[in-house]
Write a sequence for this structure.
């Protein structure tokens, strides 16, 4: 066991050494090969100088570009290609994977569930995040409260699933309920339930987990944005006699609206890719299937159907696309103002 | 703050002021309560996990964790002694014994001779036995079965009792999961995956970020836009092509397609866009004069990068390192696809998922296993929260 960690550490050292060797070595080589010899004439000096300046950025960029091309860009095209082939990626099948997909009940259910996740999780996470941010900034113990609510951000989706599965735990009707939800239900005279097996509502119970995790994220970003509202703006509103509620809706919300959008879209992307929670809690049973889990399922089911898996992955990609374009446009706009 | 405003705007009308203040403080109280409710709601589930993982496993399954600090009562049964154990004292026969060890802190709340009458008799009161004689049970669990005639029972009759068990906390669950359930092994595996997968992308990204921030070359803006776009490409797109690629490579070299090297490189590739984006934004914010004066002094880009930019970018490097660490440590998907589910390489998230399937009802195992898996990110998180928050802000507010 210890050997393994040692092995990992050695790899880290080797990796860093290799990186440095590459960056330092390639730079040295560049300077060496395109050396400005002291006897060279003016034009030759300028030319080799220019070439060095032109090549150097690419030396700095090369490893990153290589990794990103291999692990992100190439797969996008390969997935597109594979979606037109059969399960082993050998025989061309045209659009039949797509036709199959849209008729598959599992897919229809996943799309429906994903849409529900898309509506509920970002809105509630952002809403709770905003609420906590506003409340915490006014109270002396706000910082501690924020830390506590932020904490689930550090917990893995699988860890969170264990935590919440325990909350939803169900024992037979005659036993003592050790899950909080069922204990409360029993205390009020209700009938304990195996919550995660109750179709439709179980989706909501799974969403609670992600809301629990993402609220901290929304809170941190929105809290920073709230603090960024100019004090004069707030002061002016106060002098005009605006109530706290009016201030919140008429001043704060419009002021931080761009940030709310960013938070919303970031959580939307997380939701589109949601996988861990579903596989850990229900593995798509009891009508809780979502796209990412369906894709994972097809990737390995019966040795794996790469054609169908790829097709489902493309649907997720397609859903992310608008946000991606929006992000790129925002970033480019920022770039030009820089 | 609000009260100051009130006094400045309404200084004259004292009673109105008082009324307004009263209203305000109600608002304040509501704010305190609302936030408190949210904090409790958010911490309660994790508290349940932590407390449950420390409880005795029998208590865990019979009572809610919120009762962990009070004694729990459960029904138990014990067999009494037989005629072989009897002794004669002053003309009566006794069978004496203990329902449980006296020093365990347990106490008998009530007892009876059948399941239905389990709560029928309080300790100290005698009860008639079907096999003759009567029995006295003390609260400490010792009993005295008395009969005027010699006993003839060969098989000890059952005695039902309600026992109060004091709260019991133990580390046994942790010892068990670490050894028997393979969590210890997975813990090491998680570290093995996480350390290189966190460190390697940082260097690669830093050089690229510097080039994108401070060097001029064609297509620079296009590349920046591409990086921003790649941040949100779903992992799902990469899985199948890369799995095929890994399988092909394994086929050629004759090795395995599920290797640590494979997952390190995969995490490096997936983490780079965000790393480059974060670092570039930070580096671009470094003062231009600093760079220019260094350039004029004849320092090369390589030198400027290693001696000035890299040290100055420490906060951004730390932010990304925490991100990547948490992301890799908490990842299930990439680990499952590229490292597989074999016993020797299963990481903590994968192990937990497996335990959820195979040991779904053994909460003593699940809770302690889950706690071991979340303790490392929690430590990282709380000790470096400042950097983490800074990274979050840089990564999202600026249009990412």
């Amino acid at each position: 066991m210890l050997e393994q960690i040692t092995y990992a550490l050695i790899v880290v050292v080797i990796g860093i050494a290799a990186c440095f060797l590459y960056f330092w070595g390639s730079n040295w080589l560049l300077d060496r090969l395109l050396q400005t010899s002291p006897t060279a004439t003016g034009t030759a000096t300028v030319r080799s100088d220019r070439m060095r300046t032109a090549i150097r950025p690419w030396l700095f960029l090369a490893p990153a570009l290589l990794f990103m091309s291999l692990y992100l860009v190439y797969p996008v095209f390969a997935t597109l290609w594979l979606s037109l082939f059969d399960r082993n990626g050998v025989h061309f099948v045209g659009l039949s994977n797509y036709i199959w997909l849209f008729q598959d009940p599992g897919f229809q259910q996943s799309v429906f569930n994903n849409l529900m996740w898309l509506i509920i999780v970002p809105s509630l996470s952002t809403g709770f995040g905003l609420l906590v941010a506003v409340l915490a900034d006014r109270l002396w113990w706000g910082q501690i409260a924020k830390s506590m609510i932020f904490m689930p951000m550090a917990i893995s989706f699988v860890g969170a699933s264990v935590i919440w599965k325990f909350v939803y735990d169900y024992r037979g009707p005659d036993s003592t309920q050790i899950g909080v939800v069922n204990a409360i239900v029993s205390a009020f005279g209700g009938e304990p339930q195996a919550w995660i097996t109750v179709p439709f509502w179980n989706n909501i119970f799974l969403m609670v987990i992600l809301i629990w995790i993402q609220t901290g994220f929304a809170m941190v970003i929105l809290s920073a944005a709230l603090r960024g509202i100019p004090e004069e703006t707030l002061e002016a509103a106060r002098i005009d006699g605006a109530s706290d509620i009016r201030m919140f809706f008429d001043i704060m919300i419009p002021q931080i609206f761009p940030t709310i959008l960013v938070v919303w879209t970031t959580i939307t992307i997380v939701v589109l890719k949601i996988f861990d929670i579903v596989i850990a809690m229900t593995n798509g049973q009891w009508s809780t299937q979502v796209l990412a889990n369906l894709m994972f399922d097809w990737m390995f089911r019966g040795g794996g159907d790469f054609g169908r898996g790829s097709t489902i992955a493309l649907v997720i990609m397609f859903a992310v696309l608008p946000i991606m374009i929006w992000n790129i446009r925002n970033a480019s706009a920022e770039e030009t103002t820089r | 703050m609000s009260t100051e405003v009130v006094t400045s705007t309404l200084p004259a009308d004292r009673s109105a002021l008082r009324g307004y203040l009263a209203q305000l403080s109600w608002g304040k109280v509501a704010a305190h309560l609302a936030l408190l409710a949210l904090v409790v709601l958010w911490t309660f589930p994790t508290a349940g996990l932590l407390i449950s993982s420390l409880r005795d496993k029998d208590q865990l399954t019979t009572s809610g964790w919120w009762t962990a600090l009070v004694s729990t009562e459960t029904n138990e049964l014990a067999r009494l002694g037989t005629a072989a154990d009897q002794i004669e004292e002053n003309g009566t026969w006794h069978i004496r014994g203990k329902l449980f060890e006296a020093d365990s802190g347990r106490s008998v709340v009530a007892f009876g001779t059948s399941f239905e009458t389990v709560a029928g008799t309080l300790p100290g009161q005698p009860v008639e036995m079907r096999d003759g004689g009567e029995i006295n049970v003390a609260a400490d669990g010792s009993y005295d079965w008395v009969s005027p005639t010699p006993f003839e029972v060969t098989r000890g009759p059952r005695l039902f009792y309600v026992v109060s068990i004091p709260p019991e906390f133990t580390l046994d669950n942790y010892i068990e999961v670490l050894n028997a359930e393979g969590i210890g092994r997975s813990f090491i595996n998680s570290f093995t995956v996480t350390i290189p997968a966190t460190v390697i992308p940082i260097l690669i990204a830093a050089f690229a970020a510097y080039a994108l921030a401070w060097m001029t070359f064609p297509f620079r803006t296009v590349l920046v836009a591409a990086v921003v776009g790649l941040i949100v490409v779903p992992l799902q797109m990469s899985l199948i092509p890369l799995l095929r690629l890994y399988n092909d490579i394994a086929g050629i070299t004759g090795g395995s397609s599920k290797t640590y090297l494979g997952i390190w490189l995969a995490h490096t590739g997936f983490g780079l866009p965000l790393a480059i984006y974060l670092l570039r934004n930070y580096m671009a914010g470094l003062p231009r004069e600093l760079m220019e004066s260094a350039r004029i002094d004849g320092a090369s880009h390589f030198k400027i990068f290693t001696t000035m930019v890299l040290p100055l970018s420490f906060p951004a490097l730390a932010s990304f390192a925490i991100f990547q660490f948490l992301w890799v440590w908490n990842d299930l998907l990439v680990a499952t696809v590229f490292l597989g589910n074999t016993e020797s390489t299963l990481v903590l998230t994968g192990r937990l998922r497996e335990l959820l399937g195979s040991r779904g009802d053994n909460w003593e195992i699940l809770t302690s296993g889950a706690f071991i898996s979340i303790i490392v990110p929690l430590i990282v998180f709380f000790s470096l929260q400042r950097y983490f928050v800074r990274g979050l802000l840089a990564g999202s507010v600026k249009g990412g």
Remarks:
- The domain at 98-337 of chain A is CATH 1.10.3720.10 (MetI-like fold).
- Chain A has two domains: 2-82, 98-337.
- Residues 275 and 308 of chain A are 17 Å apart (CA to CA).
